[in-house]
Amino acid sequence: MANLFDLAGKAAIVTGSSRGIGKAIAHRLAEHGANVVVSSRKADACAAAVQEINDAVGRKAAIAVPANIAAKEALQQLVDETMAAFSRVDVLVCNAASNPYFGPMSGIGDDQFLKILQNNIVSNHWLINMVAPQMRERRDGAIILISSIGGLKGSPLLGAYNISKAADMQMARNLASEFGPDNVRVNTIAPGLVQTDFAKALWENPSILKAYTEHSCLKRIGQPDEIAGMAVFLASPAGAFTTGQTFVIDGGQTVV
99, 106, 126, 240: which one has the fewest Cβ atoms less than 10 Å from its Cβ? Predict the structure, then answer.
């Protein structure tokens, strides 16, 4: 039987992939045979991640294309350079996100709220619409949005961020319905608390960390690589009959 997780010959874009969950996903996609475009705002961070991935997999599997997700023209350049390098985009992972505010929604500034909505929702919409046409024409593609369990519940400190992550889940459902007849799958991964620089405000706070781990089945926070396997599944033949879903990976935090 063919390897259900074989991604040989596939081309993937992973945003926000110079560190954290995005880098882990890019690494594991490359490990399973894909050619991967590493993208984030900083060129030097992208180059370092590319070197790390290529050294680990023993081939030139990754290239760097820096891009600011808030700029539509930068996202178009990201897609154009990927197409120039690999002639196609088989897998898109929308991982990059912003959260410039930590506190009650009564205190959030308009510019902060708009930045969250722009980078976490609108930019995903832009990028998906740039890659989806060639996926639909070929009748093959996988789109993965990295959301959060915050999109499933309320929070006194992360309200705007959680709104954006709930919207990503609904975006996946809408687009799965729209793209499904063309065999393009759209799914969402909703991690719990993962030990990344992005989430430092949570896991470096002893009271928040204690509350999270005490109310989870595994009694610990997650690691970036523990999210990457689901992305490989959704991008590969193993996930060929999976679309419109949100996959919670949170150590059991939402079930207790």
Answer: 106
